[in-house]
Amino acid sequence: MPPFGLLHRRAWASLFGQLLRPSGLVCIGEVHFHSQVSEAVLISQLKPHQEKSNFVIKTPKGTRDLSPQQMVVREKILDMVIDCFKRHGAKRLDTPAFELKDFDIAGQFDPMIPDAECLKIMCEVLSGLQLGDFLIKIPWKDVRHEMVAKKGLAPEVADRIGDYVQRHGGVSLVEEMFQDSRLSQNKQALEGLGDLRLLFEYLTLFGIAEKISFDLSLARGLDYYTGVIYEAVLLQTPAQAEECLNVGSVAAGGRYDGLVGVFDPKGHTVPCVGLSIGVERIFAILEERMKTAGLKIRTTETQVFVATPQKNFLHERLKLISELWDAGIKAELLYKNNPKLLTQLHYCEHMGIPLVVIIGEQELKEGVIKLRSVASREEVAIKRENLVAEIQKKLSES
């Protein structure tokens, strides 16, 4: 397979912008963590006689804050998309000016092979996100004026294509157009149909031909794209259509062989084809569905909670949790010297933490630790030296 790159169709402009950025300015991406600390309320400590500051914190225009629950959903979407890109050999390109989730293939390759892989990637991402049934539409450029005036297609051929505008289908529609004598006599139309026939051949080999529809009523940026273009839409039941937002297409892409040359001082042409995943649109759909279904979302990945039923056991809890962290186990405890056991157990249930390790005076004397399942409330005594192995076993079984 040839090397792939995440070369966004607008990334070149962003890169030029970065080069022109004044020295000393640095773009920093913030990562926000949520734990028990977020449960606390931050209170201003200004004294009564001090004047309040006029400083107001505002969300930058075009952005919004996301809650821990929303971040979980968004990160799962991004992880799914990025994992798919990497599976297809992608290299990452960071352009801080954009939130990019695009996959692009740049270079001179044989016809329709990269195009077919982009459609395969789109299918993998949308299937993996479990959005429901979807369809990827491949349009014929159907705007008569642009086809004739800008693309050089003969007017009579453009009019003949117009007869097909209300049609959509798979390879059978392509074959039907091949048999149309008025289309097959035009070199440009014949080349385009040949590309589509080849594309559907590859899509069949990839096992996704049934997800692709050749839709002559669809048109997307004729000046921007130079070849096959496509967009993915969700096929919703009437009930889903009422529940979910009308967001339009959730992914799109196509071939844009002339765009890179616009930003190259020497005007070098680099053939490119790519796709964009509508992360924000998909996020809006999944968020709405979860609200409708009343699903509870875990906001942490904590696997084990370290608890005690007794006072003055903070040091033992700290030693124990350190052992778990050092073993790569995600663990936490309450930031209190003498928390009540019931409070600790309720916290685990509320946060969806699956396991609790309990240490007290009796356990310390016997050299064991109690391992409790939060769901079943069953407890077993484990020798301390075997605790990490037993936890890892339990986690692998869940």
From TrEMBL:
CDD domains reported for this sequence: HisRS_anticodon (cd00859)
EC number of the protein: 6.1.1.21
Top EC group: ligase
Binding site for L-histidine: D104, R220, Y224, Y225
The Anticodon-binding domain, residue ranges: 303-394
GO molecular function (one): histidine-tRNA ligase activity
InterPro entries: aa-tRNA-synth_II/BPL/LPL (IPR045864), Anticodon-bd (IPR004154), Anticodon-bd_dom_sf (IPR036621), HisRS-like_core (IPR041715), HisRS/HisZ (IPR004516), HisRS_anticodon (IPR033656)
Alphabetical UniProt keywords: Aminoacyl-tRNA synthetase, ATP-binding, Ligase, Nucleotide-binding, Protein biosynthesis
GO biological process: histidyl-tRNA aminoacylation
Catalytic activity: tRNA(His) + L-histidine + ATP = L-histidyl-tRNA(His) + AMP + diphosphate + H(+)
Pfam families: HGTP_anticodon, tRNA-synt_His
GO CC terms in record: cytosol; mitochondrion
Domain Class II Histidinyl-tRNA synthetase (HisRS)-like catalytic core: 145-282
Family: Belongs to the class-II aminoacyl-tRNA synthetase family.
Listed name of the protein: histidine--tRNA ligase
Gene for this chain: HARS2
